[in-house]
Each structure stands twice: as structure tokens, then as C-alpha cells.
Amino acid sequence: MGPTGDGQRGSEVAGLCQAGASVLYVEDDESIRDVMALILEDEGFEVHACVTAEEGLERMRDQHYDVVLTDQNLPGNSGAWLLETARQDGLLRCCAGLVLTACSGPIDLDPVFPVLRKPVEFEDLLGAVRQAAARSRAVSPGPPLRAEARRTRRPFQRAESDTG
């Protein structure tokens, strides 16, 4: 059964929430990255892929994503570092994060970020991304307010008073 209590209704809601949802996918293995991007695109997601956590963070500063799906073991900083740094920078207010890992041990990461263990079944992965997109879009379908404020920032001007 879906989250609404009615299996058909739940899948309709998930489908509406994922339609056009943007996913930033961070994966250093090119073959995995290409296959996963195709699978997510076939499911209706708009996928933007990159190789490192640092590149992912830069992209998040430039563009809003509904979901960040990241591998844990990346060259340079980890997927956990990416999500924690993005949250500290205020980039995850309207975005959900998911971590993929082949490690069997614990990951030093806030439990708010779901961890999917590789190998993961495609349906399980797609279900997790759909749920993340639905949560993200329920909060706000638009770009973070901080980015908008930067574009429209003007110097403060004091209003003139009518008191002579």
C-alpha cells in the first residue's frame, strides 16, 4: 500500500511528485553513473551527474535540486561530507539527500539521510528517490530563498519622513 493508505492513489501521488523532479547524482564510477542516470531519466527524473563531492557542492550552490543521491566513497571528500556541508550551508532546506554505499560498517552521518547499501535493487532505489522527491517537493518546489535574496539584494535606503 502507498503512503496514502490506497496503493493506487499512493503511486499516483508519487508519480506526480517525481515528474520533472531534479536529481543531482554524485558517483565516481562512470559506468554506474551512466546506467543509474538512464534509469532515473526513464522514470521521469531530470538527472544532473557529477564525479566528486566538491563538484556536487558547487552545483548545489548554483542550482536547486529536489534530491541529492550520492555515493559515499568518492575521490576527495565523501558523500556524507557533501550532505553535511550542504546542510551547514543551508542548501538542503528544500532538498532531500540519500547515500549509496558498499560499506557494511556504520557511516558517520545524521540519520535524517537514508543510507542504501549496495548492491541495491533498482525498485528499492527508485522507491527511495521517489519518496525523497515527494518530501522535497512538499516543502518547496522552488529554489532556495538564499539564492533569490542574493540576486535581488539592494542597499538599504531610509525612507524620508514627512515631519519637516
Describe the structure.
Helix content is 43%, strand content 15%. The chain is globular, with a radius of gyration of 19 Å. The chain is an alpha/beta fold and 164 residues long. It is built from six helices and five strands, in the order αβαβαβαββαα. Strand 1, helix 2 and strand 2 (46-50) form a beta-alpha-beta unit.
Q: What is the total tally of β strands?
A: 5
User: In oligomeric terms, what are we looking at?
Assistant: single chain
Largest sheet: 5 strands, parallel
Which percent range describes the beta-strand content? Answer: 5-15%
Gyration radius over CA: 19 Å
Summed up, the helix count is 6
Give the tags:
164 residues; disordered C terminus; alpha/beta; five-stranded parallel beta sheet; disordered N terminus; globular
